[in-house]
Amino acid sequence: MTASKLQFSAQSLLDEASTRTGGLTDLGPGPFVDPLKLLVTSLERDAALNPVGQYIARERTLGHIVNRLQYVNDRKLNPGIAHESIVKPVFIIGLVRTGTTILHDILAQDPRNRAPLTWEVTFPSPPPATATFDTDPRIARCEAGFPPQDERREKFKAMHPMGAQLSQECVVMMGDAMCTPLFHNQFRVTAYEDWVDNEADWSHVYDFHYRQLQHLQSAHRGERWVLKTGAHMWGLEHLLRTYPDARIVFTHRDPVKSLTSYASLTTLVRSMGSDDVHGPAIAEDWNPRLQHALEHAIAVRSAQQYPQAMFYDLRFTDFIRDQFAAVEGIYDAFGIPMTDEAAARMKWFIADNPPGKHGIHRYSPEEYGIDPTAVRGDFRRYIERFDLPPE
Fold this sequence. Notes:
Order of helices and strands: HHHEHEHHHHHHHEHEHHEHHHHH
Strand content: 5-15%
Oligomer: single chain
CATH topology: Rossmann fold
Number of helices: 19
CATH class: Alpha Beta
C-alpha cells in the first residue's frame, strides 16, 4: 500500500495537547510517548487515510493526550483521588460482538451500579459530580461531537448504539494509556496492533485504569462499577492483579457470527477515514488476533491464581432469548441483591430497546471471505469448551 503523508507528528500532537490544556506537560507514570510515536508511524505507513481520516485520527489521538494530561493534573489538585477504593467491580469480557454493549447498558440501569458514561470518558476533567451528573454541559458537548446524521451513522447505530449518556467501554478508556485494540478497529494500524498483541506491557494500562476509576468516582460514587470490553482478554492477568476481587461475566458466541459481525463493523468504521478498505482483508487480519486474545484469556482464567475473583459464563443465544433472566443469573452468581427498582428500570430499558430498534445489522460470511468451517476449526477448542452450536 502507498504511505499517506500525515499532516501531524507525535511531537505536534503533544504540543497541541499542551496548548489545549493551558500548558500541561506531565503525562504521569508509565509508557505513553513511545506508543504514541508507534501509533503515528503506523497511521502514516498502514492506514491510507484520506483528508477526513487525517482529521479524525488527529482529533482522536489529541483527545486521549488531553485526557491523560488532565487526569494527572486533577490528581495533583485533589490528592484525595488517590485514596479512592475500587471494590468488587463487575467486568463484562469476551469475544467481540457477543451482546456486551446492550448487557452493559442494562446493568447500568440499576441505580446502585456505576458505569462510565460516554460523555465523562470523553471529557473526564474535572471529575463528574453527583449534583450535575445529568445536566453537566459536557453532555451536550459530547453529543455535538458525534458524526452528522448520514447513511454511515445510521448503519453504525444499527450495529452499536451511540449516545453521550450511554455506557462506554474500557477499550476507549485504554486510549488514555495509549495501548488499545480500538485504534486498529478505527484505522488500519497493523504495526501498532502487532505491538499491542505481542509486546505491550499491559500492567501500565491497568495501573492507569485504576486511576481513571478513582478519578471518575471521586465525586460521584455507586455501590459497584460495571465495566466492559472484549479488550480485557488481552491483559486479563493484569486486570486480575489490579482488581483481585473482580466479578467477570465472560460472554460467548459462535465465532463465525462474532468475526463476521466485527468485520462488518470495522469495515464501516474504517471507511469513514479511508478510501482503501477491504472487508475480506479485515476479517483475515482479525481472525488470528481474536483467536490469540481469546486463548490467552482462557489460559489466564484456567490458571486459577486469583481465588477472590469470580467468573460467570453467558452464551449469546441465552442472553438474546431472555435478557432479564440472563441478568438475574449474573446477580445470583455474584450474590448481588436485585431490588424492585433495579428490576423495573432494567425491564423498561429492555422493552424500550428491542433488537433492531435502530435498524437491522445485516451481514454474511461470504461478504468478508469467511469460510465458516475453517473458522470453526480455528476456534474448535473454544467451541467445544463452551458448547457453542452454529447460529
